[in-house]
Amino acid sequence: MLKTILAIAGKPGLFRLVSQGKNMLIVESLLNGKRQPAYSHDKVISLGDIAMYTVEEDVPLGNVLDALKAKAESKPVDIKSFEDDHAIREFFREVLPDFDDERVYTNDIKKLISWYNILLSAGITDFKEAENAEEKQPTEAE
Fold first, then answer.
1. What residue ranges in the chain does DSSP mark as E strands?
2. Which of 36, 68, 75, 126 has the most neighbouring CB atoms within 10 Å?
3. CA–CA gap between residue 52 and residue 7 (Å, rounded)
4. What does the alpha-carbon distance between residue 140 and residue 142 come to, in Å, rounded to a whole number?
5. Is 26 within 8 Å of 10 (Cβ atoms)?
6. Residue segments in the chain with a per-residue pLDDT below the cut of 50
7. Residues 19, 26 contacting (CB under 8 angstroms)
8. Cβ-contact 128, 63 below 8 angstroms
């Protein structure tokens, strides 16, 4: 599921991949449902390709989102409820205890929480399971 959810640099929110054209993608905003093109010169990245830095090895975003969902009890997280950057980092340390303090910036954590809230509001809640199902499909066909 996260493979078809896209982040586009310079455009707010997240987008679902709808179709592909010759030099563009047709994407649908998860915020308002409007469809628009994303051209080949736009910086587009799939959430399935993103990982968070940790002290030992990178953790796929689906696993981080799943841990965040467990910590937040499947409810949205209010970023404004945190007093300062330190409080946000301490909250995130409870989600991903061994995240790399030097390479994960507070803005990265805020963006992750924002994406989590957008995905929840769009009804997308199975982050880790969806990726595992995609990985299992090729082995079943063999």
1. 5-8, 15-20, 24-29, 35-39, 44-46, 51-52, 59-60
2. 68
3. 15
4. 6
5. no
6. 129-142
7. yes
8. yes
For 43, the token pair is 């910086």
Tokens (6 digits) for 83: 């007093």
pLDDT in tens, 115-124: 999 999 999 8
Helices and strands: H and E segment counts in the chain: 4, 7
* Per-residue pLDDT tens digits for 22-37: 889 999 999 999 999 9
Joined together, the tokens standing for residue 132 give: 């595992």
Q: Under DSSP, is residue 86 helix (H, G, I), strand (E, B) or coil?
A: helix
Q: Which domains does the chain have, with CATH numbers?
A: 2-47 (2.30.30.730), 50-137 (1.10.10.1650)
Residue with tokens 């945190």: 82
Instruction: Tell the residue number behind the tokens 């929110």, with chain if given.
Output: 13
